[in-house]
């Protein structure tokens, strides 16, 4: 077990900057997810941590030890890849014990440690099987046991579940979390899947264009995103254009595209009259009820008509026309209050749940009552 520190880490490939001066601290025993869209530099960061890629600049420390110039085999890290790459002509237990053999561990001890790790990943009954007979999920568990058997200080996981189908992937996410809790090793896990990061992580570091844009506990980054990029990346939302009509003592009053004013507490953000904002109304934070008429709307409610109903598996998405602007909200399939196209509904929200972003994507504030 060990902490990890990346300082000013940079990787250039010709003119392309894949990782752009990234700083990151991972605590000893933490499970950290590097999350971001494809191409943002997650794998390159992980590979520099493991010594598979040489940084153009910056430093890697594992524990207190500077390892930037060390080759992979001198760092006590172990990597799990998307493709499990098991040896086909060796049994499951021989696969798991392989790294220990390379380390010169005696045969009896190798078998014992490999067996222990296979138990941790719940593959204890498959020790003598040929890996080619196993399912994808089972192979990935064996690969995980193989990487853990050498007792790495840090386990590096590069999209290890993305070859699995959805059901198995979700099951393995929970199991991976349990395995982490059992072995207490530091895990750095790369994924582009928000749900996977939310399920697994103690902390999520969200990457954008080669750098970390925000880091925090899953709930923290979801509830308190620092930018529009993060707000949109972490979940579908309604972004409504607004214009600052008035600057007040605590913030601004903005006119939204559906003719409702929102008050935004802006703190230190510099916002001027006439500035354009994007206001995010998360679908799960909208309250919707069927109504007869359009009277009685206030500052935190609007009335409109359901125009479209979209079935999305376990949820149904409803679009509401608010005089040309649309908002969507979702309900679980089978919910008591399912709506139909043509229904007139009143949509309301708690102003505190609204987030406002400036034209450059920086968050300028939160709504206030
Ligand atoms: P991610 O893991 O977030 O999908 P990567 O770290 O794989 O992103 O890649 C970041 C950027 O660096 C991408 O634009 C990718 O095309 C580029 N890149 C990665 N590896 C190489 C390489 N060996 N040579 C040239 N460009 C690379």
UniProtKB/TrEMBL annotation:
<keyword id="KW-0067">ATP-binding</keyword>
<dbReference type="InterPro" id="IPR003593">
    <property type="entry name" value="AAA+_ATPase"/>
</dbReference>
<feature type="domain" description="ABC transporter">
    <location>
        <begin position="4"/>
        <end position="234"/>
    </location>
</feature>
<keyword id="KW-0500">Molybdenum</keyword>
<comment type="subunit">
    <text>The complex is composed of two ATP-binding proteins (XacJ and XacK), two transmembrane proteins (XacH and XacI) and a solute-binding protein (XacG).</text>
</comment>
<dbReference type="GO" id="GO:0005524">
    <property type="term" value="F:ATP binding"/>
</dbReference>
<keyword id="KW-0813">Transport</keyword>
<dbReference type="GO" id="GO:0016887">
    <property type="term" value="F:ATP hydrolysis activity"/>
</dbReference>
<dbReference type="InterPro" id="IPR012340">
    <property type="entry name" value="NA-bd_OB-fold"/>
</dbReference>
<dbReference type="Pfam" id="PF00005">
    <property type="entry name" value="ABC_tran"/>
</dbReference>
<comment type="function">
    <text>Part of the ABC transporter complex XacGHIJK involved in the uptake of xylose and arabinose. Responsible for energy coupling to the transport system.</text>
</comment>
<comment type="similarity">
    <text>Belongs to the ABC transporter superfamily. Carbohydrate uptake transporter-1 (CUT1) (TC 3.A.1.1) family.</text>
</comment>
<dbReference type="GO" id="GO:0043190">
    <property type="term" value="C:ATP-binding cassette (ABC) transporter complex"/>
</dbReference>
<protein>
    <recommendedName>
        <fullName>Molybdate/tungstate import ATP-binding protein WtpC</fullName>
        <ecNumber>7.3.2.6</ecNumber>
        <ecNumber>7.5.2.13</ecNumber>
    </recommendedName>
</protein>
<dbReference type="GO" id="GO:1901238">
    <property type="term" value="F:ABC-type tungstate transporter activity"/>
</dbReference>
<keyword id="KW-0547">Nucleotide-binding</keyword>
<dbReference type="InterPro" id="IPR013611">
    <property type="entry name" value="Transp-assoc_OB_typ2"/>
</dbReference>
<dbReference type="InterPro" id="IPR050093">
    <property type="entry name" value="ABC_SmlMolc_Importer"/>
</dbReference>
<dbReference type="InterPro" id="IPR027417">
    <property type="entry name" value="P-loop_NTPase"/>
</dbReference>
<comment type="similarity">
    <text>Belongs to the ABC transporter superfamily. Sulfate/tungstate importer (TC 3.A.1.6) family.</text>
</comment>
<dbReference type="InterPro" id="IPR008995">
    <property type="entry name" value="Mo/tungstate-bd_C_term_dom"/>
</dbReference>
<comment type="subunit">
    <text>The complex is composed of two ATP-binding proteins (WtpC), two transmembrane proteins (WtpB) and a solute-binding protein (WtpA).</text>
</comment>
<dbReference type="Pfam" id="PF08402">
    <property type="entry name" value="TOBE_2"/>
</dbReference>
<dbReference type="InterPro" id="IPR003439">
    <property type="entry name" value="ABC_transporter-like_ATP-bd"/>
</dbReference>
<dbReference type="InterPro" id="IPR017871">
    <property type="entry name" value="ABC_transporter-like_CS"/>
</dbReference>
